Amino acid sequence: MDSVKVKFLQLDQTDTLAKFRPEFFIPKNNLGDNTIYYCGNSLGLLSARAEKGVIQELEDWKKYGVEGHLQAENPWVHYHEFLNESMAEIVGALPSEVVMMNGLTSNLHFMMVSFYRPTKIRNKILIEYSAFPSDRYAVESQIRFHGFDPKDCLIILEPELGEDYISKENIAKVFEIHGESIALALIGSVNYYTGQAYPIHFITKIAHRYGAQVGFDLAHGAGNLLLHLHDDGPDFAVWCGYKYLNGGPGCIAGCFVHERHHDRPDLPRFSGWWAHDKKSRFKMSSKFELMKGAEGWQLSNPPILAMASMKQSLSIFHEAGMQNLRKKSIHMNSLLTSLLVEWDHPSISVITPQNIDENGCQLSIRLRQPDKSIFVALTNQGVIADWREPDVIRIAPVPLYNNFEELITFFNKFKQIVENYG
Fold this sequence. Notes:
Oligomer: single chain
Radius of gyration: 22 Å
Strand order of the largest sheet: 2-8-7-6-5-3-4
Strand content: 5-15%
Helix content: 25-40%
Number of strands: 13
Shape: globular
């Protein structure tokens, strides 16, 4: 065994988070062996706890019927409240600032109802280039809903010509030019294509300085980065639950609303009965009594089966600790980046920033002469990764269930494939 692989095996032996890997169901290849699952940035793996949690709710449904709302092991009427504290830990918020509800794009629309209030002078929305398409669709539809044209009201935060990287200087320049007309800055915490993590505190501060509201799509940030939403102070944030948070396909999403907005019944919003004060909700009054906090943006009673898997997954995050997860993630990312950079093959480049403050689990590897057959060959060799048109392979070593040995195994497979296609 070569010395490099021995080094990586030794890292696994001293890894304090290694105990969590056996809790997850890792997909098998055709020979029945574990694949190298590097697609947690698209869909996280199922844990035994999540499976057990869903089964528990099904059993309670079978046993109690409607009485499960009060008699289930985890009474359904309070179910969303069971997730608030642990979710707040992950995103660096107060429990009252967080609520799990709906899907990501639905939450984004509900937040824009409250925080995108365009006027004739201030009506533009700033998003980053190569934003996830659903965000752009939602933003453009909101602009049209208010009677404006996306061609006039959509500003794209772009890198310098020929670059992938967006610097703080880029960000400041855009606000210097357009700041007085920007109603809302909506940025992804991690760009889904390049893997660059954007500076939340910096963007929030400069957006507020120019009088704009600011929100973040944390789909690729929640459960990945160390977040400090309360202290950084954005007006809102939204995220899904199925990527790094391992809540399951199409799982319940999350929403953050900063504390300073909690006692603002004047904020426009679309309302539903689960935003009614829980103390009097079941009196079924026709008079709406708004709850304070992020829960005041809810509409419907919680989807229990979707929340059950999330509840159990969050228990793993609580035990592991985001500080520990981030530390391992940085180590894994740095090691793999070093292998790729030192190899220095002319057919590839790593476009994810190497600065640890500007990346998360994901590494985006660009093929200089796009050939999806390289990705297909990688898949055939038992690596589950992700292809993004036109030329990027995304891989995401996740600290909860990926180990160090997989890094060197992946690198050797990838190197051989690229050189064969050379």
